[in-house]
Design brief:
Elements lengths: L1 H35 L2 H31 L4 H34 L10 H24 L2 H25 L7 H34 L12
Length: 221
């Protein structure tokens, strides 16, 4: 029975790794839709978000079932409880990718991102996508050194966000209020994706070591 329990827990973790791949793809596609004003891609991200939500519900149900039917101890209990938190992080990242796609759809056929900040958002999208990929790799490999890399990437995302505000508040900004609002919202969405990915890294370190990194070392989404 115990071996079967471990197999079920490993299956849940494998599903989380697969969700990371799905979510990173959603972030990549949403960014392309945003920067290219691609309505079809935006609709794809929005419609496929329901599949991510459904997967979250499925994984949660299986994790709660393990808690109810088995008596996980020590590392197993840490893993099950942390799984419940991480699947929520992934679902939220999927929602945020969909929010990006919705702004792309709202502004179509125009590009929502002003030319002055295009390179900034190109980098934001790349950092966010890679952070989700790294979270999945870390979960699969249980490599805490890789998990710690998420902190530096999250700091880069924060700096990209600060750069946006400097542009928005400068005397040279001449793209109007509507685009300023779009930029503020979009920057926040990407920043939150990064925060959730970094939080996953922190939780994976907890699963492996039994201890959370110092709270001032990691962001709290």
């Amino acid at each position: 029975m115990r071996e079967n329990y471990r197999e079920q827990l490993d299956d849940i973790l494998a599903d989380l790794v697969q969700m990371c791949q799905t979510v990173s793809g959603a972030v990549r596609t949403a960014t392309t839709a945003l920067l290219e004003a691609d309505l079809q891609l935006a609709e794809t991200v929005i419609s496929e978000d329901e599949a991510i939500d459904a997967k979250q519900r499925e994984v949660e149900a299986r994790a709660f079932s393990l808690l109810a039917r088995q008596a996980p101890v020590a590392g197993e209990l840490r893993t099950v409880v942390t799984t419940l938190r991480m699947v929520t992080e992934l679902e939220r990242m999927g929602d945020l990718a969909a929010h990006v796609a919705k702004i792309a759809r709202l502004r179509y056929p125009e590009v929502a991102v002003p030319t002055s900040l295009r390179s900034n958002f190109v980098r934001m999208g790349d950092v966010a996508e890679k952070m989700v990929v790294t979270a999945g790799q870390t979960l699969n490999d249980r490599n805490i050194q890789v998990a710690q890399e998420l902190r530096s990437r999250d700091e880069e995302m924060d700096e990209l966000r600060r750069t946006q505000f400097r542009v928005l508040l400068s005397d040279e900004w001449d793209d109007g209020v509507e685009k300023a609002v779009d930029v503020a919202l979009l920057g926040r969405y990407y920043e939150r994706i990064a925060d959730h990915a970094a939080s996953m890294g922190r939780r994976i370190i907890y699963v492996v070591t039994g201890q959370f990194p110092e709270e001032d070392f990691w962001p709290q989404p």
